[in-house]
Amino acid sequence: MKKYVYFSTFLMVLCVNLVAQVSFTNYTTADGLADDYVCGGVCVDNNNVWFGTQSGVSKFDGSTFTTFTTEDGLVENYINCIAYDSNNQKVWIGTENGVSVYDGSEFINYTTSEGLIDNSAKSICVDQNGVAWIATFSGLIKIDNGEVTNFTTTDGLPSDLLTRVRSNSDKLYIGSLVSGLIVYDGVSFSSYGTSEGLVDNYVSAIAVVDEGSIYIGSYAGVSVLNQSFSVTDTYTMESELFNNFVQDILVDDDGNIFVCEYADYLADGGVSMFNGSTWTTYTTQDGLVDVMLKDAAFDQNGNIWLTTGSGVSKMSLGAGSALLLDQSPVMIYPNPAKEYFVIYGANENCKYEVLDLSGRVVKEGSSVNQTIVNCDDLKQAVYIIKLHYGEKVYSHKISIK
Q1: Short-list 37, 116, 45, CA closest to 77
Q2: Which CATH superfamily is domain 23-318 in?
Q3: Which of 31, 47, 100, 104 is most buried when burial is the number of CB atoms within 10 A of its CB?
Q4: What's the pLDDT at 90?
């Protein structure tokens, strides 16, 4: 009896009140999306989510899709990239035939006729001053209040073959096809590649966190850099990712990392989430609309919008309420557990779920009075045991060693 009291007291300290729950809502042409092949990214303004497809741009206000095409003034229907300018409330759209900017009433278009070095925009971002930056395979384009400036290797760029562009504070972070990460401070360009520790010189995704971490995606995994541009960590499919074909990376305010992985003929794609201790991957089996992940963006409510080759998925990171353990009539021991743990004290049928810290159910069953639950098939990590006891729900945290 003393052993039971000990573990009950220990578990009270470890109890949590919320368990993250992940769900997916999918949207396709059947819901009004312009095209299911959402090849041109996603961005979010204060009220809408914007998607680039191969048949134009779709705006979603939460209930209705509105589509814009060349008939509305768009320079081209096949979209490659899209970004929102929060300073001027404009949407920038990169296509195979130029760049369009939409102010809510009309489109202004830029092509080589207006000075662009290349019509095919591979990636686009807008910095804190409202300046648009476009990555192309011919160099970097800057559009500032309608004025076009081009940068190439003759201006110090390590390579003209650019794949991604992101801004943060006073720096520009540029991905390249062969030269790794390129950083522009407004004066000069510097580059960081495999010789500096990157897992690959082809950069397919960039995420910059305000605290200083820089996440670089490639087709060989993810490299993490610090403010000094030294590699501090590497994530690959050997132990963390679903596959190495990284398409986009997001990091939320809690430090959770979301990696979008592309499908190829050898492996399906998915979203891998890292909460600081555990990796969890979500695929079509969990509700994703398609295995071919492309780009991602957070909305104002913390949902993640994912673009794919067969539509759009909204990934909702909700929470399920749980009661405090000191109200629970059920005890769980030992903790930490190695090969098994015991659910003790349920005098009526009690359903249990074992969840990882991202909210994914990894084991479930029922318990009456005393149940021994095998856990030697679980990875070493911290889990949440959620007990549905009568009409109430209780949560216990347990460590598997």
Answers
A1: 37
A2: YVTN repeat-like/Quinoprotein amine dehydrogenase (2.130.10.10)
A3: 100
A4: 97
